[in-house]
Fold this protein.
Amino acid sequence: MVDRREINSGCVVTDLDGTLIRSNSLVLFTRYLLKTLLQNAKYKEAIRLLSLVLKRKIRLCSHREMKHGIIAIAKKNLELKDLDIFGSNLKKDINPEVNLLLDNFHSQGLTILLATAADDFYIPSFISKIKDYNLQYIATKFSPNLQDYKETKGDSKLKRVKDFINKNNLTCKALISDHYDDLSLFINLPGQKFLVNPSDKTLQKIRSEFPDATFHQQNGIYQW
């Protein structure tokens, strides 16, 4: 008898922040990095980190610039064991409703693709903790040069997802996200759509793009 998972060519694409996990991974990572720096008495690096966050708070740098600086500090100061601990911490923030949804898709033999703007410096440590399904991922690739640091979001994210799907001869069966930042994916990828605990603004934007869709909501997840 042939296991249907061996012949299924479907793919489910899920976002990370606010979707697979309930929080923002960069915020959690920054807090963890600061704590680790202080524990290791790396006070100058801790001050650098806090300065970056402050500059962003008062709009003296972009979110991309802040994130690039945070990851640069982390790459210089964190060890593999630190990343392993953070991966375990991040797993604790998984949204159980989304986890159940992905587990169900996986049981049908579908490939699960995590597509996120989060930096790929800490994503592998999180991926290694997910044992329920074979999670593939696309994340922002770090570059030492800020001008070459391109976040995986919007059209860039869409392109990388399509490249993954085409390279692996897959068909998108479902898309899961929490934010209108993924609007281009909702519009251009086929399959079921799931919106996780969306803000009023996100829900309004999605409804305006899909005026004829019938939305079903359960446990904070909208499906159409």
